[in-house]
């Protein structure tokens, strides 16, 4: 698709999304699509890694589908299937790669068994914030590398959600020293799990719907999930009273849509532009929604449920930082493709760190100093 075709198609899609989404981009998106005119309907099945209609994560997948359906005037009909309805959460990638499903919505680090490079397109320990990873993918060469990586598995990827900065997790016991991590059984996926193992803990990968029962029956001692909004919905505070933040492992977690490459290549240019625009819209709005809802949910957790907010000590942070850099470097040098992704990621992170050091970071410090509370 050449640039002129994409811009033309994108302009039509952008005009349509303004009508489809209303002022908030959320409330009207799930309404019925306008009937397709003089065009056959192409039906697409989207599998997800999330529980059905789960706030922020599951609904981001629903929103992508709703935007596509409405923006296409009904000529595309995307149906969403939650984890377990067609395939399990961790089988979504293979289902799309092999053509059992047409697209997925999930977190790319779930596919690290395919290539460790996928970690960099969700989150890595001590890595990029939400805005930084969006900048890298959209403008710093990340998308081209992601296309090449996922293309090896017959998949075309897109950014399609971001949960923002995640919390450090829920713990049944206090974490005061590095020794408190020894023997700790914690649900934590991706490279954050590798860091926990280096600290002496046992990292467990569980899908969202499996976490609460595992906490309840003692299979795990702690869990990270997302942040106050999603954590409140799962009720983790009932089983693990200590809530630690901020998290080191997912400072800005990108969620992705992966589309079967053969299906993608067969689409008309305007349909491709609609799907790209829908994913971009969902990406931006999900970050705004998480930011807003996390503030509300944190107030409920603290003031209505008596949750104890804790912070890891400087000693713990220093050691986590040392281990994280080594874990990410080891992962980044696993093979030639991953090394290219890692080097691009690291270069972008370091350049944006310089900007953050003179902009948001000192501003936030001064805002808290002045406003207090």
Structure description:
With 373 residues, this protein is of the alpha/beta class. The chain has 2 domains: 202 residues, 3-Layer(aba) Sandwich (D-Maltodextrin-Binding Protein, domain 2), CATH 3.40.190; 145 residues, D-Maltodextrin-Binding Protein, domain 2 (3-Layer(aba) Sandwich), CATH 3.40.190.10. The chain is 48% helix and 13% strand. It is built from 13 helices and 11 strands. The strands form 2 sheets. The protein has a 6-stranded mixed sheet. A 5-stranded mixed sheet has the order 2-1-3-10-4. Strand 1, helix 2 and strand 2 form a beta-alpha-beta unit. The longest helix has 35 residues. It is globular and about 60 Å long. The N terminus is likely disordered. Pfam families: DctP (PF03480). One of its GO terms (cellular component) is tripartite ATP-independent periplasmic transporter complex. This is C4-dicarboxylate ABC transporter. Keywords: Metal-binding, Signal. One of its GO terms (biological process) is transmembrane transport.
Task: Produce the secondary structure layout.
Elements: H1 3-21, E1 42-48, H2 58-71, E2 76-81, H3 92-98, E3 103-106, H4 130-139, H5 142-151, E4 155-162, E5 169-171, E6 185-187, H6 190-198, E7 202-204, H7 208-216, E8 222-223, H8 228-234, E9 242-244, E10 254-260, H9 261-266, H10 269-303, E11 308-310, H11 314-332, H12 336-358, H13 360-371
Parallel strand pairs: 1-2, 1-3, 6-7, 6-8, 9-11
Antiparallel strand pairs: 3-10, 4-10, 5-8, 5-9
Helix pairs in contact: 1-10, 2-10, 4-5, 5-12, 6-11, 8-10, 11-12, 12-13
């Amino acid at each position: 698709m050449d640039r002129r075709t994409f811009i033309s198609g994108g302009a039509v899609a952008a005009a349509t999304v303004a009508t489809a989404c209303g002022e908030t981009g959320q409330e009207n998106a799930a309404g019925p699509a306008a009937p397709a005119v003089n065009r056959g309907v192409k039906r697409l099945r989207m599998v997800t890694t999330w529980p059905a209609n789960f706030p922020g994560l599951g609904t981001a997948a629903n929103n992508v589908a709703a935007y596509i359906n409405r923006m296409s005037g009904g000529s595309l009909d995307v149906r969403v299937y939650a984890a377990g309805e067609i395939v399990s959460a961790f089988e979504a990638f293979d289902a799309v790669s092999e053509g059992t499903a047409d697209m997925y919505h999930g977190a790319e680090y779930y596919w690290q068994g395919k290539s460790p490079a996928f970690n960099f397109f969700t989150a890595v320990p001590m890595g990029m914030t939400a805005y930084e990873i969006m900048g890298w993918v959209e403008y710093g060469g990340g998308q081209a590398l992601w296309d090449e990586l996922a293309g090896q598995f017959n998949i075309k990827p897109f950014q399609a959600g971001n949960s923002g900065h995640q919390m450090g997790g829920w713990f049944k016991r206090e974490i005061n020293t590095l020794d408190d991590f020894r023997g700790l059984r914690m649900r934590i996926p991706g490279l954050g799990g590798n860091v926990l193992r280096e600290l002496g803990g046992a990292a467990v990968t569980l899908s969202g719907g499996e976490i609460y029962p595992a906490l309840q029956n003692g299979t795990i001692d702690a869990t990270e999930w997302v942040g106050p909004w999603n954590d409140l919905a799962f009720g983790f505070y009932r089983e693990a009273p200590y809530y630690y933040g901020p998290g080191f492992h997912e400072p800005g977690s990108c969620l992705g849509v992966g589309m079967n490459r053969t299906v993608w290549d067969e689409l008309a240019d305007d349909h491709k532009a609609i799907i790209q625009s829908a994913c971009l819209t969902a990406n931006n709005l999900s970050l705004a929604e998480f930011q807003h809802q996390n503030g509300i949910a944190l107030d409920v957790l603290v003031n209505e449920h008596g949750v104890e907010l804790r912070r890891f000590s400087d000693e713990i942070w220093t050691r986590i930082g040392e281990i994280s850099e080594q874990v990410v470097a080891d992962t980044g040098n696993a093979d030639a493709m991953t090394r290219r992704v890692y080097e691009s990621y690291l270069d972008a992170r370091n350049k944006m760190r310089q900007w953050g050091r003179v902009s948001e970071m000192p501003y936030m410090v001064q805002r808290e100093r002045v406003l207090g509370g």
